Amino acid sequence: MCGIVGYVGENEAADFLVEGLRRLEYRGYDSAGVAVLNGGPVELRRAAGKLSALENLLRKEPVSGTLGLGHTRWATHGRPSEENAHPHACCHNNIFVAHNGIIENYGELKDALVKSGHRFKSQTDTEVLAHAIEDHYQGDLLEAVKKALATVRGSYALVVFSARERKRFIAARRDSPLILGIGDNEMYAASDVSAVLPRTRRVIYLEDGDIADVGKEGARIFDSAGGRVARTPKRIEWDARTAEKGGHKHFMLKEIHEQAATVRNTIRGKFDAEAGLLNLEESLPLEVARTLPKVCLVGCGTSYHAGLVGRYWMEELAGVSCDVEIASEMRYRRFDPAPGSLVVAVSQSGETADTLAALRNAKRKGLPTLAVCNVVGATATRDAAYTLHTRCGPEIGVASTKAFMGQLTALFLLALHVGRSRGTLSEDRLKALLRELNRLPDLIQTALDGNAAVEEVARSVYRENNFLYLGRHLNYPVALEGALKLKEISYIHAEGYPAGELKHGPIALVDNHLPVVAIAPRSSVSEKMISNIEEVKARGGRVIAVADEYDGEVGTKADLVLRVPRTDEFLTPFLTIIPLQLLAYHVAALRGCDVDQPRNLAKSVTVE
Ligand code: AGP
Question: CA 405, CA 306: separation in Å to the nearest integer?
């Protein structure tokens, strides 16, 4: 969580800092701040709330200088307020720090620092870093940071400068992301590349344990053992414009509409449907795929829901036993799958702390690991033995949409690859599924063309306070994901349920103020879904059904119907999720909610 930026060069630091923070605001928006060094004392500006509050402050009280750092916060320790906003300073306003992560032993460090005379101004864990560095400072910031970090437990990405050293900042990371951007006589640091893309495409991904001494002409990098290391700069080809809204009112809507391209990009070069050829060996070597006794999919939130869909594919198409785990719970369970079992970490960001912990746990046990990840160079992709990228481009809306689509695509390909490698998927079935996968972008586009109809439905229900989503088999996880989308951006209470469980409790909730969203495309379980719709109707409930274009029966039973194109039953989640994403979007927009930055949430959850 939190976004951090740093700058050293010949231009006004604040210009980049604010621009970079704007691009990182999805990581947290409880407060923001910058510290800039010029000829005089360090100029510190901080404001509670979104970045716009800091921008207002900077208009009234501008800062000037060519060395600086900035921060946009998602609060962990201490309420969102100005005094808890970063950057934090030491007692004598010499050391300034912006930090992303959690200092787990901050209590004991703080006690010791207070005893030795340090005075704290905030309730944050981060402030101990400023004081600890001050404690070790003897004219060389790099040495002081190294010594201070040696006393720290927890996770951090941080940028630090000293008011006494005008030409450098120090950047360091452990378990939180941090990159350096290389400019022309200027250097940048940021939590991710999107912050620096308008300025430079040359970046260095710092590794865990790295400490970088950054001046305008470059960086000296030291690894966790203290040795000088060379980290090869990478050229980022992402177009910064892809991170803009492209004419849509919100990033989320833009990203929903990019889903045909998401599938197209993710499958590109991966198979030849007519020849029945799959090309996934780089992501998972044949010998691993052929012999794995079990697959374990692990993730959080939307990524976990993608894993739940993936389980049906693994079991029914690949014929392999599959568990799906919530990453934050997995760490408390005894986890002992048979040797050779494949652990797949599903993560848009590749930085989610719990998912990374699960991945590392699997690695420690000697299991093969694979990251299904959207962000090139993310920690998960570096930790896992293998990677399968979802090619969605940057997802800015906090509510995940196109990333889910990319994850479904990747997991589907993976299941086909495992099935083919093990000989459990016939050649004919494989070809038929691949042909359907090729059609999918067009089918998705058709589903998206139903946007106006979904908006109409949203108008009829947006004032309700509770929703129930029902689905079965492959569309049960879609019910969970539809409910998550609605609750996170509209703050409406929504529950996803397996439709077969309706009679075991939730049916008691049914009345005409509880819209029941029934996901009922034509499939092997559609008759059972129709029975569930009848049960809700018989109790005076209101049903919004998601049905396929040719299905007349659902239309006669439900109050409102959202249509999607017909496809193979195994591909229905790719289409049924679309009206649910749009429904959540329109309901939230009609309620005047902050769609792209819903309250209390952050895009990337880098703390446990
Ligand atoms: C979904 O809309 C949420 N933003 C959230 O559940 C998200 O999917 C989760 O935090 C996992 O993130 P990751 O995919 O980056 O690991």
Answer: 8
Phi then psi for residue 348, to 5 deg, are -60, -55
Which amino acid is located at 587 in the chain?
Answer: V
Structure tokens at 433: 């599924």
CA of 557 to the centre of ligand 1 (A): 35
How confident is the model at residue 242, as a pLDDT?
56
Q: Where does residue 508 rank: exposed (0-12), middle (13-18), buried (19+ CB within 10 A)? A: exposed
Q: Can you tell me the distance from the alpha carbon of 405 to that of 256, in angstroms, rounded to the nearest whole number? A: 9
Kindly state the tokens that stand for 592: 């005047």
286 in Cβ contact with 278 (< 8 Å):
no
Q: At residue 549, what are phi and psi to the nearest 5 degrees?
A: -60, -30
Please give the single-letter amino acid code of residue 532: N
Q: What is the pLDDT of residue 290?
A: 95
What is the Cα 595 distance to its own chain's centre?
16
Distance CA 506, CA 26 (A): 35
pLDDT of residue 75: 78
Residue nearest to atom 4 of ligand 1 (CA): 399
The whole-angstrom separation of Cα 142 and Cα 167 is 12
- Report which of 34, 36, 128, 46 is spatially closest to residue 85, judged by C-alpha positions: 46
Strands (E), 223-264: 228-229, 234-235
User: Is residue 98 lining ligand 1, measured as CB closer than 6 Å?
Assistant: no
Instruction: Give the residue, by CA position, lying nearest to ligand 1 atom 7.
Output: 301
Residue that the structure tokens 């996901």 belong to: 519
Cis peptide before 521 (omega within 30 of 0): no
Cβ-based neighbour number of residue 2 at 10 Å: 29
**Would you call 2 a catalytic residue per the annotation?**
yes
Report d(CA 478, CA 134) in Å as an integer. Answer: 52
The DSSP string of 75-125 is -SSS-SSTTTSSPEE-TTS-EEEEEEEEETTHHHHHHHHHHTT----SS-S
d(CA 572, CA 274) in angstroms, rounded, equals 22
493-520 pLDDT, tens digit per residue, is 999 999 999 999 999 999 999 999 999 9
Contact 322, 311 (CB under 8 A): yes
Separation of CA 398 and ligand 1 centre (Å): 8
